Amino acid sequence: MDSNSESSSEEDIAPTELDFSLDFDPEYTEEELQQILLEEKKAEDERSRLEHRVSNAHWCTCGLCIPMPTGVESLCCREVDQIMMKNASKSCITHQEDFKTAVLNLNMIKLHRHFYVSKIKDAKEKAKWLVEDNANYRLFAYRVFILWLNNYEKLGHKVRKVIPSCVVHSIRLMWPSEDGIYKGYKEADVD
């Protein structure tokens, strides 16, 4: 047979050309495998639980949440431990005077925006944030809510938290979109 017309067989491949990609895969003990499977099952159960929340508010216990387009956004204020610690009356967090003062007060939103924008060096970027419109007010209200919830400590670069539906709803009522279209929660881009 002509060796040029025939494709190489495994015996003809030099050892350095073989695929050793599986040689470096981690080896797990039976316990570790069980733990991995358990964690995967919990994550799948959580995704399944959340998907039942889409486009309804049956999950809401404060009475002020609205149906959200995704399961992850379908969160009630009473499901967040940090909120419950701030909420002595146990009513919806949006009824708290502190919340109204910090998050729904236009002067507070403008003040936070001023501090945020003062750190921006790029003129175009700065101008974008200084636009006086409801979209910017909503964005800063969401930021202020997270700051308020965390006792004014920043979360860190690209760290995001889901905001409860009732809070999102109250902010949207205060600063509505002209076309009724909202962006919703987005995970941070990972570098």
Describe the protein in words.
- It is a single chain.
- By secondary structure, this protein is mostly helical.
- The chain has one domain.
- It has helices spanning 30-51, 81-86, 97-103, 106-118, 123-129, 134-149, 165-174.
- The protein is globular and about 60 Å long.
SSE diagram, text form:
Elements: H1 30-51, H2 81-86, H3 97-103, H4 106-118, H5 123-129, H6 134-149, H7 165-174
Largest sheet, if any?
none
Tell me the structural class.
mainly alpha
The succession of helices and strands, N to C, reads HHHHHHH
Q: For the CA atoms, what is the radius of gyration? A: 25 Å
Question: How confident overall, as mean pLDDT?
Answer: 81
Oligomer, anyone? single chain
Can you tag this structure with a few keywords?
single chain, about 190 residues, mainly alpha, 7 helices, about 0% strand, globular
What is this entry, summarized?
This protein has seven helices and no strands.
